[in-house]
Design brief:
203 residues, alpha+beta, 7-stranded antiparallel sheet, 4 helices
Length: 203
């Protein structure tokens, strides 16, 4: 991956996880180190000059974590409660992104702390990290539920005539729905204060 670093600005292409239906989508990311913002665009041709980012997040107070699911994935857990799940080309590229984003996040966290009321304490940032992990697990659960549905539907008449399989499918869907509702309730209660106001487009 080609990351260009000038005055704490760098850019490059990453995969962004959107949702279960669309999965991983290729996006072009730019980091504005002076403003402490991470922007992403639909493709490399969409440069910041004269175009609106598909999404943007503040890095101040953000927790950037390599994922343990593989050597390429990492998450950006923002102080606002927003979370981006990203995937680099390889382990080295991931480490470059993690190091660069952490440097910008730390710089802006210190700058804001020096001139404004303190950001959420470390314990709260740890909660944000845990929420990010919970969201990742929910996404994995959604994928497993879809895989289960595909297997059952492939069984054809066997599935339709077996009440136990029908019950299994219904229970899986109901459990997933319940977990998603619980997560949404926790997320709403977690950040009652105003959000960042920046665009987070799930595309």
């Amino acid at each position: 991956m080609d990351i260009h670093q000038k005055t704490r600005q760098f850019s490059g292409q990453l995969y962004k996880y959107t949702n279960v239906m669309k999965g991983w989508q290729y996006r072009f990311f730019t980091v504005d180190g002076s403003a402490g913002l991470l922007h992403y665009f639909l493709c490399e041709g969409e440069k910041p000059e004269g175009s609106t980012p598909r999404g943007s997040v503040h890095l101040a107070g953000a927790v950037i974590c390599p994922s343990d699911e593989d050597s390429k994935t990492f998450t950006v857990n923002c102080a606002s409660g927003d979370m981006l799940k990203l995937r680099a080309a390889d382990a080295r590229s991931r480490q470059e992104w993690v190091n660069g984003l952490r440097a910008v996040a730390e710089s802006h966290t210190k700058a804001i702390s020096a001139t404004s009321p303190p950001l959420p304490p470390r314990e709260h940032l740890a909660v944000l990290d845990a929420m990010g992990s919970a969201k990742t697990q929910l996404q994995n659960t959604e994928q497993a539920d879809l895989a289960l549905c595909r297997v059952l539907e492939a069984a054809g008449s066997t599935f339709i005539n077996d009440p136990n399989l029908l019950l299994l499918k219904a229970t899986s869907a109901a459990s997933l729905h319940c977990l998603l509702q619980c997560y949404n309730i926790l997320q709403r209660n977690q950040h009652q204060p105003a959000r960042t106001g920046l665009v987070i487009d799930d595309d």
